[in-house]
Amino acid sequence: MTLNDKIKSVISKLQMTPSRFADEIGVQRSSISHILSGRNRPSLEIIQKIVTRFPDITYEWILDNNEVVSTS
Length: 72
Fold this sequence. Notes:
Layout: H1 3-13, H2 18-25, H3 29-37, H4 44-53, H5 59-63
Helix pairs in contact: 2-3
């Protein structure tokens, strides 16, 4: 599972819209849109914001290419 796919899965598991997710982590909505469309990969700053806002998501999980989504 790619990093972009994990972010898609997290948004789905949290039952949020991409816009709400962007607002929750404090990034521009267009940044999340570009990640979800595959245009861009998430920056380290975005990953840090996700892990900070959602502590159930760890750096190890989000950066590991082999693990599947397991958020609470």
